[in-house]
């Protein structure tokens, strides 16, 4: 199969860089439904530009290219061992080319393999079928939304929704709860893949398989079709909004299957995917491995542009920050302000935060902007170049952040999804601010990086290292300020109240 390798590489590249038409259409509807001039609408403007930028430059739509998950159908007699080996080679090559971030971490040692290979990585599911072609489908689903997957065991009691029983009404409560609990952490607006029934392990597999359906299809089971439509309508009344900023667009798809269950078990398994819903597929000639057809899109049709304007709509009221930032500057900021950072910043995520709890920082962090980001980087000659650099989910750093702010004098923490009460208190006490960048907008933010000035703690691997960047007009929204205000806490409260109202309609 002389073309198998290049076909798989093309599939990975296209999946990482070019959203399929059904997702583009759903995002267009989401953007159209949002109230102009709101924070959610600003976020969607950046997201739409980012989708175009990724396609224009063939760069990753989001820096978190996830756990590559392949579903392969082969005719009887095709050598699946060879296909699996070629998939692994293609994954490693796509990583070398900067189309995938090195994401495979040894769970015992913490070491990143650097090529996206490792135990059970990538995930490959094989199935035989009676067709003559090979079909390969690929889903790239990042960690932020993967962490918001959730499984319910009915009966159960849910925040704001009360008891959920072993019936469709109980299932519906679970699905509304799944959208609510994700808030902005999984880069809303998101999509649900759902399995009602099965066992714990297979239920999650079947839920993820639902994400291989197009967002605009109609479930052939009328009961599930009705439930999907109801969830779409009601979840978009809760008010989570893009990035959890509060707004109308919370969900772009809901796809449900049902499987038989044990009498004693009633699971509802939910795979939550983000707006950066990267899923494509190809049909391959079984003898040559050449692509005979694309699934989900028609390559002969031009890719529709998403952005209405260019980039972030500036109003002139934005606050420019140039690190080192003073206490006076951050105390003047309040929730809702838009900030443009020009100057130097440092990245730091899970490994860096854990390290800083026990070790002094390798750089002076007084007045610094600390960016929760695991970028895609390539070395060109002696110079590192940013290929994708959106924010990662900040809540993972909640156990560390307050200590780091107080101990080292960080003034601005940048990430997505917001942080908790301990960080909010530290921002107030020490004079700091939390800035929400737009999740998944990896190409948009990569363009704001003028130069990589250096890297520290490289032993943690590329995504976890501390990168020293010089940025220009890096846009973010103040969502937690030094006065004790948190947009995230407010939206969580109002959306919880909206759930309660839905219950009584
Ligand atoms: S868009 Fe957000 S949730 Fe999705 S992969 Fe990127 S960072 Fe993760």
Q: Report the portion of residues in β strands.
A: 15-25%
Give the termini distance in whole angstroms.
59 Å
Bound molecule kinds, no repeats: iron/sulfur cluster
What is the number of helical segments per DSSP (H or I, 4+ residues)?
A: 14
Q: Which runs of at least 5 residues are low in confidence (pLDDT < 50)?
A: none
Q: What is the CA-based Rg, rounded?
A: 22 Å
As laid out across the biggest beta sheet, the strand order is 2-1-3-10-11
**Which of globular, elongated, flat, extended, rod-shaped describes the shape?**
globular
Structural class: alpha/beta
Question: How many strands in all?
Answer: 20
Average residue pLDDT: 96
Instruction: Please outline the major beta sheet.
Output: 5 strands, mixed
What proportion of the residues is helical, as a percent range? Answer: 25-40%
List keywords for this structure.
505 residues, alpha/beta, 5-stranded mixed beta sheet, 5-stranded mixed barrel, binds iron/sulfur cluster
SSE diagram, text form:
Elements: H1 4-17, H2 21-33, H3 39-57, E1 69-75, H4 80-96, E2 123-129, E3 134-140, H5 143-146, E4 150-153, E5 156-158, E6 162-164, H6 168-182, E7 190-197, H7 200-209, H8 222-235, E8 251-259, E9 267-273, E10 278-284, E11 291-295, E12 319-321, H9 327-331, E13 338-347, H10 350-358, E14 369-371, E15 376-380, E16 383-388, H11 398-408, E17 412-415, H12 421-430, E18 433-436, H13 442-446, E19 449-456, E20 466-480, H14 487-503
Parallel strand pairs: 1-2, 7-8, 12-13, 13-14, 14-17, 17-18
Antiparallel strand pairs: 1-3, 3-10, 4-9, 5-6, 7-9, 10-11, 13-20, 15-16, 18-20, 19-20
Helix pairs in contact: 1-4, 2-3, 6-8, 10-11, 11-12
Residues 62, 64, 66, 142-145, 186-187, 274, 276, 390, 439-440 line the site of iron/sulfur cluster (SF4).
